[in-house]
Amino acid sequence: MVLLAAAIGTWWFAGYAGQDRLGEIAIAAIFAMSLDLMVGYGGMVSLGHALFFGLGAYALAGLTLFLKWPPGLALPASVLLTGLVAFAIGRLIVHLGGVFFIMVTLAFGQMGWAWFARDRLFGGIAGLSGIPQIDLSLLGGDLANPADFAIVAVTAATMVYLALARLIESPFGAVVSALHRNAGRARALGCPVQSYKLAVFTIAAMLASLAGTLQAQRTGFVSPDLLVWTSSGELLIMVIIGGIGSLLGPIAGAALWTLLHHYLSAVTPYWMLIMGAFFIAIVLFAAEGLYGALARLAWRRPHV
Amino acid sequence: MLPDPASLVIQLLNGLQYGMLLFLLSVGLSVVLGLMNFINLAHGTLYMLGAFLGLSLVGVTGSFWIALACAPLLAAAIGALFYGVLLRHLQGESAMKQVLVTFGLIFIGIDTVRMIWGDYEEAIAAPALLADSIRIWGQPYPAYRLFVIALGLVVALLLWLGLERTRLGAVVRAGVDDRVMAASLGINIDAAFFGVFCLGCWLAGLAGVAVAPVLQIYPGMDVAILIPTLIVVVVGGPGSLRGALLGSLLIGMAETFGAVLLPDFASFMIYAVMVLVLLLRPGGLLPARQTA
Fold first, then answer.
1. Domain residues for A15?
2. Is residue A240 part of a domain?
3. Could you read off the pLDDT of A258-297 as tens digits, one per residue?
4. Beta-carbon pairs below 8 A across chains A and B
């Protein structure tokens, strides 16, 4: 609730840049929540989540620019397409654990990056631009206007949050939590562990691709940088500093990282050093992240 | 369209040279991963530091050979510092924490290099002794690249001898096979691992200086080389010297020939190979441990 109020407040008062930033944060929040679903709740650490983000964006680009689909149709289609790809990949890899899963997700992510970096149809390393935005004139809005885009993005983020909260509190979510804590025990109780992990993997991927499509809408541009492994790494950082294993955590982390990134790089060219040190400190000393620390102060029991 | 034998040999040598570079880098990372189950994403950072320290040493002393000798030692020292201050505490932790902290170190490393040496691409000139080209099959080929190949092979040989013929080598092999057992036999595994870790850092630094006259050095080169190195470690098999050698030769050749023959698909193929190995033979092609 507080975050929503903050978002609305920012939207109201901030100028052009602030609203653009808000849209950026909302997209990052969706992306981060999707990763946390996989890592914090599902226990699967992925260094290739940016693959799905990029696939969503590139699918949108491909459908609208090459097949001339209307963007309003292409967006959900892109999410579904990515979901299919994620399902296929997930089937191959969700049984892997720990180090192997990390490395294979890294490999898949880089495969995607390498593909799009070379593929001339999709613009190679320079990417594609000119992706059409969804026409909201019926609702009186225009996505090219950062204020309107911010509203759409924040609304989307809120809906994702609510949906995920429902999911986590549901029986499905309970099983997933149980799996994370002790897969052996869950299996002994007759639970199809791999199916649940696959489901979590696919859902997380589709949400990431949703974020990706929104990003393509925001900038009208896609490039292989969306998929590179360091993007996945930065996403993991966002989730960690925000607080893994919650939903508000990643939102906070996304906001914190984006703001710090912009603010620090305006102040010093060496923002990476500060972020790196800050991040290491968090991992070592405040493993529950910003949200976890706040939750301990404010509430008895952390909310979802 | 078959390439003529001269350019084939040239590409072969290029692949070999790139393979040797990957070998120097991957062997350190591989042994650390196999031995300590520790993923050190900051390994590339030591490579980068080796290159830049070498650059400074050349600037100060005017001698490439001094730089080649000293920069790796400095890299090893920095690695030891990392280890003592930070990484030691991560030994028992989850893979994720190790990945995250070493990933954070990458960030710090890049900016530190930028702060000290600036943002631009640099180069070190090859030493006068090796600056010429040698004629191979009628084509000129830089003598320096042959030196890199020779260096890699010599290092490989020395490492193999060290592993097979010395006490420390035996300890390391025992530790890779069964760490708990080795420790319970009273062997100071932690000290051995620390030694191996420093050796890995030394090798990374060596790779950095050695390759500087061939490739550009720039902040961010650590990230660029990290992925091929990881692929080599995965394909060859963590913890295995022979695996690292095989893996680096394979990947080195694949990338070099791939770039020439199938430029659009080369990178993609490399990652696909990594995926295949992870799925079908997760222990790698020549694993150190016999996975039952």
1. 2-223
2. no
3. 888 888 877 777 778 888 888 888 887 776 676 666 666 6
4. 107
